[in-house]
Amino acid sequence: MSAPHGSRLVVYVALVGNLGIAIAKFIAAGISGSSAMLSEGVHSLVDTINEVLLLHGLRRAARRPTPTHPFGYGRELYFWSFIVALLVFSMGAGVSLYEGVQHLRHPQPARSHGLAYAVLAISFVFEGTSWWVALREFRRRKGKLGYFEAFRQSKDPSTFTVLLEDSAALLGLLFAFAGLLGAQWLDMPQLDGVASIGIAAVLAFTAFLLARETKGLLIGEPAHPRVAESLLSIAARDPDVRAANGVLTMQMGPNQVVATLSAEFEDSRTTPQIEACIGRIEAAARQTHPELVALFIKPQTPEVWRARREAMERAAQEN
Q: How many other C-beta atoms can be found within 10 angstroms of the C-beta atom of residue 180?
């Protein structure tokens, strides 16, 4: 299964599950009067909308390059993923916090606890299934990296967004169950509102993580270091290259990378020979890295390359 197909499978599974769960939670909330159940219904509704936006982003990002967008539309997925983070915070966390505070101010005992528990149990099964599909895809891509490192280095927000959302959903279900159970056993309906506030906190933290990672991808992050290392190795093997100085990369989408290569050519080489060398490097690079949408090769001495790298590092320290 290719990466795009794997991403879509994860999102489709989450979409179907969240839509059914949202409907069930709203029905249970209306019958039981549970604040936590209503918050969970809003949570699942927001997740459903998020999956639709992610699918829209995946479809838009897959479009071919055009004269107005010569490097493709890959960053559209990053834009819509950032919108998802904003929705999780504003709608999910905001509504849950409001509902929780209102229930604390005007506590009302819940009704039909059996129905609410049944919906929570069914939701846990569906959310757990979606979470497992997302986790399996994430583990397949992360390789030997740790989970946190893989999350930080991931260039496909659709998979880790669904994984984070489902993780937050499972934790939210536990909060809702604890709030309902505590309110029923201790005869303290305020605990139902406390559970809603807990759900809001989980969603706010999830939104923060999503926004932080997608912001980095949206404004521009380098590709995985192994891409630069591979391009340097390809260039260094060519007999017409005296020195492969360095590579700068930019991730334009989950499977779209732009790279610039600094290289010093042998002084005795003619212009046609240098052009042929560049053609060989580009062909080998695209064969090894099909995600390359553009590779720019600049003739440059190692001294000039090092001076410009040092200038960039100084600027980074000043910022």
A: 23
The DSSP call for residue 64 is P
Secondary structure class of 245 (helix, strand, coil): strand
Distance CA 157, CA 81 (A): 7
For the chain, how are helix, strand and coil distributed in percent, rounded to 5? 75, 10, 15
Q: CA 134, CA 130: separation in Å to the nearest integer?
A: 6
Given a contact cutoff of 8 angstroms between Cβ atoms, the answer to whether 74 and 141 are in contact is no
**Measured CA distances, 313 to 56, 307, 317, 318 (Å):** 37, 10, 6, 9
- Write the CB contacts of 223 (distance below 8 Å, at least 6 apart in sequence): 155, 249, 250, 251, 257, 259, 291
How would you list the strands of the sheet with 256-265, edge to edge?
Answer: 241-253, 256-265, 292-299
Token pair recorded at residue 96: 């849950």
- Looking at residue 277, what is its pLDDT? 95
| CA within 13 Å, CB half, 260 | 8
- Sorted by sequence, the CB contacts under 8 Å of residue 18 that are 6+ apart come out as 44, 45, 47, 48, 51, 130, 169
Element (H, E) at 247: strand 241-253
Reduce the DSSP state of residue 302 to 3 states and report it.
helix
Read off the pLDDT band of 319 (50, 70, 90): low
Asked if 258 and 223 touch (Cβ cutoff 8 Å), the reply is no
SS3 263: strand
What pLDDT sits at residue 89? 84
pLDDT tens digits, one per residue of 132-171: 988 888 888 777 777 777 777 778 888 788 888 889 889 9
pLDDT, averaged across the chain: 87
The DSSP call for residue 22 is: H
> Residues with Cβ < 8 Å from 306, sequence gap 6 or more?
245
